[in-house]
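Example record

One chain of 356 residues, shown exactly as stored in the release files.
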Amino acid sequence: MGLRILHIAPLNVAGVPFAMMDMQKRFGHTARLVTLHRNGFGFPEDVCLDLPLPRGHLADAWRRKKIRAWRNTQAGKAPILKPRNILERLYWRFDDAWRAPAIRRAVKDHGLDAFDIIHYDGGMDAFRDARLASEWKRQDKKIVCHYVGSDLRDRGIHSDMDRISDLNLTNESDHLLLHDNIHYIFIPFDTTPYQVRTKENSTLRIIHSPTNRAMKGSEHVIRVIERLRKLRRIEFVLAEHRQHVDVLRLKSTCDIAIEQVGNHGGTGYGRNSLETLAMGIPTITDMTPECVAELPDHPFILATPETLLERLVELIDDPDLRRAHALKGRSWVEEHHSYESVHARLLSLYRAHGIL
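Predicted structure tokens for this chain:
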């Protein structure tokens, strides 16, 4: 018998919440995704409330300031999310009151009370005081908190959500060190829409496609590429501030990909790399020791800021090395990130935590 699973997320970050929903629907479950804000890169939506998200220089500066403060007080564990001053506390209360009509209307219009498992992709309720999650918990619904991206590193744990959660999940290996009760799960990824490249360009094309330059070490990548141009004939594609469909088109024309260096905002890879691996594109990244330990058979070419130039030269000079990584990349994604594999892992965790 199929499950009834509701996903709620602030944003459809890199398409991961949508992929979770899509995976569960493929296996016969009733699943929906409600996002509060629209993703700006053209990833698909299910039910999007289109609530405004403060943007611009002031909003970005405020977020960066909070991230720095949280990181400085982590002491090896995820910070606890709370307002940092009276003004932020008042803003949170005002924002919850302002968004309440849209959220309550969505609950009624889309029959969201009828779901049995509430899967919070991001670990946050639609309200900052977790009132909706608390109501559903009192109705004996199961609560899952799924931390993606930098959720635990930068924003931290919402204590009320953590208290009522039946299961905590993450796609980031370093999160296993930040939370005492969390379980790793691969990002679900459907490789069928992606064609493996069978020909290379006569002049190798290298792509780097950051959504955030600081987190991906992009300034260092660009400096290394300038040095590389003096040593080898290449083309460099910097794909940023583009719709997802445009980035995919550019990736399909490239021969080597660079995910990140420096581990400034991630543990090695995400959907960005899954796409290049699925296309048979050798992919360079930096990984934390925890991520390497979690993924002993990974297909990536590992590079640090100090070794990136050397790794690029090796890859450019050795077509056999490129072919070997191309073949391994696609098969590795199919083995570990397939809907079948991730769904089986998720069901086992549901059973182990009394959700089924």
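Notes: Residues 86-109 form the longest helix (24 residues).
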